[in-house]
C-alpha cells in the first residue's frame, strides 16, 4: 500500500493516530487542570510504566489539554547531566515574559520577574560558567537566591503561580523521564508542589517515569503520596490494541483482518510502541485494501530488524561489559521478574558482589524492582533481543559503524 498514506507512527514520543486505552487518565487530568484554575486543591500526577507504553505521548496530550484551558506550559526531559534548576529556569523565563506581555503590569508579575532573576543568580552559585538568564530587572534579594534548590524552587514556583493567578491563567509543568532527577532535586520539586497546594495556586505538575519513580519520590519526601497521583500505564488490553490497529486503517479505507490483529497482539503483547511498529511495517508490505496475517509474518522480520538496530541496540550500547553480563543472566532465566539471588547465581556470583551492577542498571533505567528482591527489565521484549544476540554469537556494540 501507499507508504505516504501510512497512518501508523512508531517514532519515540510521536502521538499515534488512535490513543486507545488512556481516556480515563485524560479525563482526570482535565479535572485537575480546571480545579487548579479556580483555586481548588488538585493533586498533580506522575504517570509510571515501562518503556514503550506511551508515557511521553500521554504527557504531550495533557499538555494540549492544558494549553486549550489557557495554561502557560513548559515541557522538559530530565537527564543525568543537568540539574532540575537548569532545566526549568529557561522555560520559566519564557512563561514569565509571556505573562508580562499579555496585559497591564501587575505587581505579582513584576515580582515574579525579580524572583526569577534571583533564582538564576542562585543557580550560578553551583554553575558559574554554564548558566545565565537575561532579564532587565533587579533581583528580589533574599528570595530564591540561596543556591539551595529545596529552598529556592518553592519560592520560584510560588512567585510564578501568583503571577499567573493575577493574569487569570495557570502554569503547567511537564517533566519526562522524571526518574533521572537526583534525590535532592526530587525533594525540591515535591516541596515546591507542596507550597503550591498550601497556597491554592494554579500550578500543575505532570510527570512521567519508570515504575521505580514511586519509590524515589517516597524516599525524597514521605508526604509525596499525598501530593501526587501515580497512574500506571501498562500494555493495552486486546480490545484496546485492536482499536489502535483497526481504527487508523479504517480511516484510510483499509481492513485490518481479525487474524492479522490477533497475530500482532500476540507478538507485541499490547505494548503501544510495538503495536505502531508492527502496524507500520505491515501497511508497507501489504497489497490491496487489506492487511492479512501473511503480511504480519513479513512485518515481523522487518520490525525485529528495525528494533534490533535502533530501539534495543541504543539501550544495549550504554551498558558496560559487566552490565551486559548481568542483563544476559536475566534473559537466560526467561521472561518476567526474577529474584536478585537467582540472577547472581546465574552469573556464578553472590548477590552482594553483583549489587553494584544492579544499582547501576537501575540508575540507567534498564531494570527496576517490581517487588522487594525482584528484578525485571524496563524495556519490554528485551529478553528476546538478548537471546537473539547470543544466538548470533556476536556483540552488536562491538561492530564497526
UniProtKB/TrEMBL annotation:
Record-linked Gene3D superfamilies: P-loop containing nucleotide triphosphate hydrolases
Domain of life according to the entry: Bacteria
Positions of the Orc1-like AAA ATPase domain: 18-196
Pfam family of the protein (one): AAA_16
Protein name, UniProt field: AAA family ATPase
The species this protein was found in: Acetobacter fallax
Amino acid at each position: 500500500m501507499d507508504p505516504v498514506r501510512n497512518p501508523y507512527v512508531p517514532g519515540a514520543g510521536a502521538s499515534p493516530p488512535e490513543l486507545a486505552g488512556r481516556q480515563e487518565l485524560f479525563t482526570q487530568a482535565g479535572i485537575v487542570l480546571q480545579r487548579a484554575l479556580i483555586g481548588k486543591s488538585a493533586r498533580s500526577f506522575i504517570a509510571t510504566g515501562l518503556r514503550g507504553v506511551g508515557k511521553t505521548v500521554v504527557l504531550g496530550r495533557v499538555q494540549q489539554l492544558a494549553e486549550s484551558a489557557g495554561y502557560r506550559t513548559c515541557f522538559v526531559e530530565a537527564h543525568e547531566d543537568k540539574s532540575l534548576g537548569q532545566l526549568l529556569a529557561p522555560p520559566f523565563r519564557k512563561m514569565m515574559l509571556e505573562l508580562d506581555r499579555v496585559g497591564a503590569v501587575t505587581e505579582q508579575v513584576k515580582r515574579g520577574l525579580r524572583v526569577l532573576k534571583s533564582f538564576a543568580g542562585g543557580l550560578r552559585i553551583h554553575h558559574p560558567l554554564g548558566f545565565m538568564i537575561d532579564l532587565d530587572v533587579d533581583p528580589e534579594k533574599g528570595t530564591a537566591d540561596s543556591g539551595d534548590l529545596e529552598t529556592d524552587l518553592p519560592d520560584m514556583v510560588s512567585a510564578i503561580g501568583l503571577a499567573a493567578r493575577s493574569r487569570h491563567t495557570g502554569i503547567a509543568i511537564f517533566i519526562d523521564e522524571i526518574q533521572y532527577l537526583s534525590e535532592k532535586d526530587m525533594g525540591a520539586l515535591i516541596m515546591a508542589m507542596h507550597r503550591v497546594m498550601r497556597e491554592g495556586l494554579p500550578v500543575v505538575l505532570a510527570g512521567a517515569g519508570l515504575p521505580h519513580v514511586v519509590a524515589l519520590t517516597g524516599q525524597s519526601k514521605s508526604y509525596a503520596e499525598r501530593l501526587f497521583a501515580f497512574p500506571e500505564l501498562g500494555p493495552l488490553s486486546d480490545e484496546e490494541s485492536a482499536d489502535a490497529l483497526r481504527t487508523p486503517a479504517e480511516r484510510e479505507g483499509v481492513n485490518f483482518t481479525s487474524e492479522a490483529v490477533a497475530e500482532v497482539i500476540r507478538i507485541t503483547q499490547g505494548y503501544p510502541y510495538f503495536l505502531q511498529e508492527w502496524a507500520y511495517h505491515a501497511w508497507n508490505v501489504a497489497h490491496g485494501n487489506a492487511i492479512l496475517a501473511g503480511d504480519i509474518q513479513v512485518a515481523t522480520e522487518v520490525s525485529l530488524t528495525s528494533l534490533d538496530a535502533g530501539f534495543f541496540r541504543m539501550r544495549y550500547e550504554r551498558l558496560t561489559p559487566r552490565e551486559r553480563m548481568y542483563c544476559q543472566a536475566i534473559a537466560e532465566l526467561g521472561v518476567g521478574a526474577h529474584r536478585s539471588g537467582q540472577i547472581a547465581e546465574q552469573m556464578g556470583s553472590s548477590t552482594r558482589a553483583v549489587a553494584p551492577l544492579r544499582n547501576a542498571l537501575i540508575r540507567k533505567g534498564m531494570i527496576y524492582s517490581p517487588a522487594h528482591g525482584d528484578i525485571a527489565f524496563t524495556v519490554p521484549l528485551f529478553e528476546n533481543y538478548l537471546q537473539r544476540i547470543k544466538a548470533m554469537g556476536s556483540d552488536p556494540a562491538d561492530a564497526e559503524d
